Amino acid sequence: MNGTLRKELRRLDYPLEVMLLCVRWYAAYPLSLRHIEEMMAERGVFVDHATVHRWAMEILPVLTAVFRRRKRPVRASWRMDETYFKVAGQWKYLYREVDRDGHTIDFMLRAKRDCATARCFLERAIGLHDVPEKITMDKSGSNTAAILSVQAASGARIKLRQSRYLNNVLEQDHRAIKRIVRPMLGFKSFRCARVSITGIELMHTIKRDQLDCTEGQVSPAASKFYTLAF
Question: How far apart are alpha carbons 193 and 173 in whole angstroms?
């Protein structure tokens, strides 16, 4: 088992297989925590929905860190945009980037939507995947200012394209994330939102075959998710 995960699981008194199954369901499908509680009860495993939530908060960050080290490279043509979710009754912003094939580059949940936030997000994505050749986006002023600021500071040559139609790949990709979030009926805290969305993005990228596995190995998304724990 992953050493970091072993430390987290010392305080969680259920078999690992049960915990990973519940956490995967939570991140992969449009289910509420009470749905998962009922589904496990049908299988003879009685676990409270609050316990499932605690498992998700502890396990998902560890598996995401492992995934980042095993993520496949992305293309140099990026799409950048943001969408929004309610957290404790207030709108928060999820910045996202995908390449031209729809593969996730990076994402970041933030409280504000401005140039400083967009630049922070862009610099982190560049740190993970190197400088892109071009970025396609809508006519967002803050995102445009962030890209120009990064270009001025680093001297990087990034072709900027502003077209809502060319950005449809990312607009459609937002829907896959929102479809999973909808049954959760909102988030009570920023940490809860950040970890939950991180898990949802994790499963989304695994389904898009972005986990670097053994050459020639073909496995379903569920099996790939479980390999992150070992």
Answer: 19
Of 132, 78, 75, 87, which is closest to residue 107 (Cα–Cα)?
78
Per domain, the residue ranges of the chain are 3-70+211-227, 77-177
pLDDT per residue as tens, the chain (230 positions): 677 777 767 767 788 899 999 999 999 999 999 999 999 999 999 999 999 999 999 999 999 999 999 999 999 999 999 999 999 999 999 999 999 999 999 999 999 999 999 999 999 999 999 999 999 998 888 999 999 999 999 888 899 998 777 777 888 899 999 999 999 878 999 999 999 999 999 999 999 999 987 655 667 999 999 999 98
Question: Nearest-5° angle of CA 61, CA 19, CA 211?
Answer: 50
CATH architecture of 77-177: 2-Layer Sandwich (3.30)
